[in-house]
Amino acid sequence: MKSLSIYDSPHSIAASLGKRLKRQRLNRDMTQAELGERSGTSRNIVKNAENGKVSLINLVAILQELGVLEHLDVFLYEPEISPLQLVKLKGKVRQRAGGTRKNAKEPVIGELLDW
């Protein structure tokens, strides 16, 4: 099987991942219906996953049942926060990315000192 490339289209990558799911299922000698039942999904969801069309929650359920969930850590690892970001956050956990506000006005010194 060929490696995935940044030059491949998203549809091509999804189809390739679906083929890999199918190979994992066949290596475990399972039918689509068996995998669907064991994973708490359905045969149609497994079929769609093997065609590259699956929701994230269903993909996780299928990967769990196939025993390959740990492979997610390889391609989608947990990034660490840099020491500089840690100092900036000062114990706060990032909830979302921030942007610059277009209408934000700078506070006047008197407002800061509560005069």
UniProtKB/TrEMBL annotation:
GO MF annotations, alphabetized: DNA binding
InterPro entries in the cross-refs: Cro/C1-type_HTH, Lambda_DNA-bd_dom_sf
Signal peptide range in chain numbering: none
Domain HTH cro/C1-type: from-to ranges: 21-72
Pfam entry (one): HTH_3
Gene3D superfamilies, per database record: lambda repressor-like DNA-binding domains (1.10.260.40)
Top-level taxon in the UniProt lineage: Bacteria
Official protein name in the record: HTH cro/C1-type domain-containing protein
